[in-house]
Specification:
Elements lengths: L2 H20 L1 H6 L4 E2 L14 H12 L11 E2 L4 H4 L12 E8 L4 E3 L5 E2 L2 E2 L14 E6 L6 H5 L3 H10 L2 E2 L2 E2 L6 E3 L7 E3 L11 H13 L32 H11 L8 H4 L2 H13 L1 H4 L4 E2 L6 E2 L4 E2 L7 E3 L7 E2 L19 E2 L21 H7 L5 H8 L3 H11 L3
Parallel strand pairs: 1-15
Antiparallel strand pairs: 2-6, 3-4, 3-5, 3-7, 8-9, 10-11, 12-15, 13-14, 16-17
The structure holds heme C (2 copies).
The site of one heme C (HEC) has 25 residues, from helix 4, helix 7 and helix 8.
Length: 408
């Protein structure tokens, strides 16, 4: 190669580099993947500014009255009353009641629906469990903190987890993914991920559902008032339905939930050698098959919920650690209720996310396990093989698992 050719080649290489690097802004303009914000601090994750988040939080916690549409049958006066520990949006000790009948083949809803509202605005319409409805369950209030990130998990991720769950010698771990309707996008279905039965996929859908079913406030999205044990109670209803002329309130609740940070860990405890050994055991025993530790959310600008919501930069491309697969499993704790899917879901419950576990003192869907160890020992069915490994641990190893769990 003569000198001139060498120079031309060198110039070519330099220009190639310049070209690549001059394109860099479009490369870095794509958001990099980062850990989601965490904290029990009432602050926004960046989706809304601080003052909007404060206003939305106040709306979520605001006590509504009968004149605002509460009732005629309802469970409580505000979202915040049940979602408040240790900050607004968290969980609480409040449970709800569901009931129905099993005829040997299939579950039949209690008259008026399996949800039995526990309060009413008149003594004559308080809902009761009627004879012949021997299937009953309590449902503990769930935390909504960090749910914006959960909403931004792609359906395909949940479907892949379901597909890949293994056949262990104790039986198949057989997580079931459910397609559920997105109410604000008629005809659109997504994989359910919210609620004890994975009954919703969209936080706006859940908000409309909760406003009607928990508080008795109907909206254009959920315009139909509840009955009392199947009997119309419209003569007790001071407002024509829908109680709200628009969906503004439920949109505000949704914006609040999407802007919450994920539950934070107790990092001091998490760094102890005991917690780290416990985490290793949790993974090796196979708890992590259902309590999946890590997910990545869809990228910013991606549209979900039938195109009705565009993922913002604050929620997109985030790493989260919810410790759940959001799938339904029969681990022998099933509550006998068929809510939103086929009869095979009767005794299945969604893997409850373990993030924020350290803030709770009642466990499982009914809140009837009062220590984490008791909650673990209640797992059977699909979880038998894994739980047998837990039973076989030494006292010290069990303590390590519990230390790890209490850092979550
Ligand atoms: C009476 C108590 C109560 C009230 C009031 C209440 N909730 Fe809930 N919330 C619950 C319970 C119980 C669950 C679990 C229900 C189930 O799955 O059966 C739940 C679950 C949820 C979930 C699913 C969380 C998850 O990650 O799975 C969302 C979202 C939610 N509620 C939002 C709201 C909103 C918004 C309001 C106000 C309009 C509200 N809730 C009012 C008790 C309540
Ligand atoms: C086959 C799936 C599966 C496996 C494996 C599994 N879990 Fe679970 N876990 C669940 C489901 C489903 C629930 C909720 C059950 C209910 O509420 O009735 C749950 C609930 C829990 C809870 C209660 C949390 C709360 O807030 O109520 C704890 C703690 C827990 N699991 C820990 C473990 C540990 C530790 C292991 C491993 C030794 C394990 N799980 C293995 C599916 C599983």
């Amino acid at each position: 190669m003569n000198r001139l050719k060498q120079i031309i080649l060198a110039v070519f290489i330099i220009f190639s580099f310049l070209f690549v690097f001059s394109n860099e802004p479009t490369i870095t303009a794509q958001q990099s993947v980062t850990e989601a914000l965490t904290g029990f601090d009432d602050q926004s994750n960046g989706f809304t500014d601080a003052s909007t988040h404060r206003e939305n939080l106040d709306a979520f916690a605001e006590t509504e009255g009968i004149k605002d549409g509460v009732g005629p049958v309802f469970n409580s006066f505000s979202c915040g009353e049940c979602h408040s520990n240790p900050v607004i949006g968290g969980s609480s000790q409040i449970t709800e009641l569901r009931a129905g009948h099993f005829d040997g083949q299939k579950f039949i809803d209690h008259p008026g629906g399996s949800l039995i509202q526990s309060r009413a605005i008149d003594p004559s319409i308080v809902e009761k469990v009627l004879d012949g409805n021997e299937v009953r369950t309590l449902r503990l209030s769930l935390s909504i903190l960090g749910d914006g990130y959960i909403e931004a998990i792609d359906d395909s991720v949940l479907l892949d987890i379901a597909k890949q769950q293994p056949n262990l010698s104790g039986g198949k771990i057989n997580g079931q993914a459910l397609w559920v309707p997105v109410e604000e996008a008629p005809g659109v279905m997504r994989i359910g991920r919210f609620g004890w039965k994975s009954q919703q996929a969209s936080l706006l859908s859940f908000s409309g559902d909760a406003y009607t079913n928990e508080m008795g406030i109907t909206t254009p999205l959920f315009p139909i008032e509840n009955t009392s044990n199947g009997k119309s109670i419209s003569k007790f209803d001071p407002l024509p339905d829908p109680d709200e002329g628009d969906n503004d309130d439920i949109e505000i609740f949704t914006e609040f939930m999407r802007a919450t940070k994920a539950p934070s860990r107790d990092m001091q405890l998490a760094r102890t050698s005991s917690a780290q050994a416990g985490e290793g055991l949790f993974n090796n025993m196979g708890c992590v098959i259902c309590h999946v530790s890590t997910f990545k959310t869809l990228p910013a600008a991606f549209k979900i919920n039938g195109g009705t919501f565009t993922i913002p930069p604050a929620i997109g491309d985030k790493i989260i650690h919810p410790y759940s697969d959001f799938l339904l499993h029969d681990i022998g704790t099933g509550d006998g209720i068929v809510q939103n899917a086929g009869q095979e879901t009767r005794n299945k419950i969604r893997t409850v996310p373990l993030w924020g576990l350290r803030t709770r003192n009642r466990f499982m869907h009914d809140g009837l396990s009062l220590t984490v160890n008791e909650a673990i020992l209640r797992h059977a069915g699909e979880a038998s093989f894994v739980i047998d490994k837990y039973r076989a641990l030494s006292k010290k190893q069990k303590q390590q698992v519990l230390t790890f769990l209490s850092s979550l």
